[in-house]
Amino acid sequence: MSIFQSSKPFITPAPVIVLMTDFGLKDGFVGVMKGVILTITPNARFIDTTHQVEPQQVAQGAWLLSSHYRYFPAGTIFLCVVDPGVGSDRRAIAVHAGDYYFVGPDNGLFSLILAELPFYQAVELTEPAYRLASVSSTFHGRDIFAPAAAHIAAGLPLEKLGPELEVSSLRRLGNLQAIREGDEVEASVIHIDHFGNIITSIPARMVPEWTSSPRAAVEFPELGVCVTERRKTFALSADASISQHPFFLEDSSGYILIAVQNGDAASALGIRRGHRVHMQL
């Protein structure tokens, strides 16, 4: 749900469409999708969260979407394309969950959204009237997803876009959520941010004693790396030389993160997205 005290949307003539893709910015793919949307819904407003999801990395996209959506107004439409299965038999879907709408491939990209938000409705995007006249096998973002998002923004009911789907039929990724058993947590590195900070799939709320347990440590078993220092902030001082030892803390999205003050923790420790994480409490 939205993080704001009231989830009642502001009355605005301009619907908000948020785009997240792995398209990058070198080519014109993002601009073309916006052009399609504006042709259908000329008053749409766009916000780009990122187009730098690593190519074909659906799990990373799922986490980024989960960490961003709640900061947008109720009624926002999220157009999300990380789609290594484009042109295959994977379904194109639109989902109404919580206060929001999500449009994209049924490949697990919405796994965390479905786990976190109340589910209301999902449909498969099959109705030809709400696609482009010619659908390519390589660019469903332009031909299927963008038109669907535009029509939803214009007020079209989801059921007009295609047949309804059971929530149980929607694909989930199985390796996104941390698992706790007693004082042990098994998880993974879900994202490396621009600064080289290592974001794990461990929600801080799962391990509330991380700030107080004398045994608390974050380990990377494949590399033999163990981080025992903990902090509440990135910097103990503005002095960059104060410490280059890695430490862990809760990040702004509520996950356990490993950092090096004023440095690139991922490069320093040799850690990549997907590495296993073990937390001892």
Task: Describe this entry's structure for a reader.
The protein has five helices and 14 strands. It has 281 residues and is an alpha+beta fold. Strands 7, 8, 9, 10, 11, 12, 13 and 14 form an eight-stranded antiparallel β-sheet that branches. The protein has a six-stranded mixed β-sheet with strand order 2-1-3-5-4-6, with helices on both faces. This is SAM-dependent chlorinase/fluorinase. Belongs to the SAM hydrolase / SAM-dependent halogenase family. Residues 188-277 form the S-adenosyl-l-methionine hydroxide adenosyltransferase C-terminal domain.
Stretches where pLDDT falls below 50 for ≥5 residues?
none
CATH architecture of the largest domain: 3-Layer(aba) Sandwich
Number of helices: 5
Shape: elongated
CATH class call of the largest domain: Alpha Beta
Number of domains: 2
Structural class: alpha+beta
SSE string: EHEHEEEHEHEEEEEEEHE
Tell me the name of the CATH homologous superfamily of the largest domain.
S-adenosyl-l-methionine hydroxide adenosyltransferase, N-terminal
Distance between the termini: 30 Å
Estimate the mean pLDDT confidence: 90
**Overall radius of gyration:** 20 Å
Present the secondary structure layout:
Layout: E1 16-21, H1 29-40, E2 45-50, H2 58-68, E3 77-81, E4 92-97, E5 100-105, H3 111-116, E6 119-124, H4 140-153, E7 179-181, E8 184-192, E9 198-203, E10 217-220, E11 225-227, E12 247-250, E13 255-259, H5 265-269, E14 276-280
Parallel strand pairs: 1-2, 1-3, 3-5
Antiparallel strand pairs: 4-5, 4-6, 7-8, 8-9, 8-14, 9-13, 10-11, 10-14, 12-13
Helix pairs in contact: 1-4
